Amino acid sequence: MFSHRVIPALALLITTALASPTVDNSLGTNLNVSQLVSIAPKSSSCASDPFPSECRTAAQAIGPITASFVTYGVNTPGEQAAILSTMAFESDDFQYQINHFPGTPGQGTRNMQMPAYNLMYAQSIPALAPYLEKVQTSDAAAILGLLIRYTNYDFGSAAWFLTSQCDESVRSGLQSGSGAGFSAYMACIGTTETSDRGAYYQRAVTALGVTTS
C-alpha cells in the first residue's frame, strides 16, 4: 500500500477555504517532542529540507499526532509506536506529505496512503463532505490536496488506517508488543518488515517504553 520516500510535485489547487482544526497538545497521551525526535531524528528542524512547505518539525507534528490518537481511540503505546514508526519512515521524518519518488499521483499524507485509501479517509471526515462534492472522486490529486492542506487530516491518516482497515487481531498484536504483531501490521498496510522499517519501529518502542516479545 505504501512506498517510502515517494513523489513529483503535484499541482494541488484547492481554492475552497476551511478553518484549520484546533489542535490540543494535551489530549490523552504522554508523547512529548523529545520522544518524537528520537523516533524521527530529522524532525528536530526543517532548515535543510528540500520541500520546506511540506516539512514539519516534531514540535509542529506532536499536536496533530496526539489529536489523531484521541480521535481514533489509539491509546496503547504499542499501537502508537507502530503508527509513529510508519509515519516517520514513509515521510522521511515528516519531511514529505506527497509521493515524490518515484511519483504516484495522489499518493500522500504522512503515511503515504495510496489514492483509494485517501478517498475513503476523506469520505470518513464529516467536515470535508461539502468540499468533496465539488471534486471528482477520480481526481486523486484534489482529494489529496484536501487532506494535506489541514495538518490534523494530514497526520491523522495512519491512525485512521489502523483502526478502520486492519483486523482487531492486528491491533491486539501491536498492543502486546510482539514481533508477530508488527509483522501482521506490515501485512495490513501492504508491505513487509525491512531492516530500515524495523529500525524506526525499534526506536519508537524504545521511546514509548513498549515491552516487546
Tell me what the structure shows.
The chain has one domain (33-208): Lysozyme. It has ten helices and no strands. It has helices spanning 33-39, 58-71, 77-90, 115-123, 129-132, 140-149, 151-165, 168-176, 179-188, 195-208. The protein starts with 32 loop residues before the first helix and ends in a 5-residue tail after the last helix. The protein is an all-alpha fold. Keywords: Signal. Residues 1-19 form the signal peptide.
Name some characteristics of this structure.
213 residues, mainly alpha, Lysozyme, 0% strand, disordered N terminus
User: Looking at the structure, what is the overall shape?
Assistant: globular
Total number of distinct structural domains: 1
In the CATH classification, which architecture applies?
A: Orthogonal Bundle
Give the number of helices: 10
Which structural class fits the helix and strand makeup?
Answer: mainly alpha
> Mean pLDDT, nearest integer?
87
How many beta-strand elements? Answer: 0
Helix percent band:
40-55%
The SSE order reads HHHHHHHHHH
Q: Assess the beta-strand content as a share of residues.
A: under 5%
Poorly predicted residue ranges: 2-28
**CATH fold title:** Lysozyme
CA distance, first residue to last residue: 26 Å
Signal peptide: 1-19
Keywords: Signal
Write the layout of secondary structure elements.
Blueprint: H1 33-39, H2 58-71, H3 77-90, H4 115-123, H5 129-132, H6 140-149, H7 151-165, H8 168-176, H9 179-188, H10 195-208
